Amino acid sequence: MAQMAILLRLVNVRRRMLEDLTDSEGRQRSRWDRLAVVDWPIARAMALSGDRRAPVVAAKALSRLGNGPIYFVILVALILFRPRGAVAVGLCGAASILLLHCVYPAIKRSAARPRPRDLGIACPGAPPPLDRYSFPSGHVMTLTAALLPIVLAAPRVWPYGVATWAAMAWARLAVGDHFASDVAAGTLIGAGVSGLIAYWIVI
Known about the structure:
Shape: globular
Structural class: mainly alpha
Helix content: over 70%
Number of helices: 7
Radius of gyration: 21 Å
């Protein structure tokens, strides 16, 4: 009898765990379903197909640059053009990116949002993503954090900063790696952290 009682207790605990998990997944799906009203039409409109050769090549190249090489370009530009407080700008960008990437994986896992490419919206031959989930956009978040201190230190370069950000945002939508709300969230998170650090270091 004691063994039967223990077995029943274990079964009840397992059932409650499954119910909690189902409820959590249901709430998560409901949250993304509300965003999908806006996100899905944009994702379908922005995703590129293989027959649009030049835009596909551009989107793939930008996505690959966002994996890391673009930050070497930004660093070289800082060294060559030496905006006011170039060292402080570089430190601010580096500190912001380091801090963001300490918390970014946890945000991704907590959100657990599937990417558009996993739901049937994808650009053929697009490079594989660096991680599993969609929300927020790490490429846009990191780029925003790197560019904001530069724009604050040298306001005259803001058109170039905005153009670089817009190109990366477009590329992430075009290859089917993100929804528009992922890009928006990445921008806000990157700007928030980088802006706070820049307030103490750059401004």
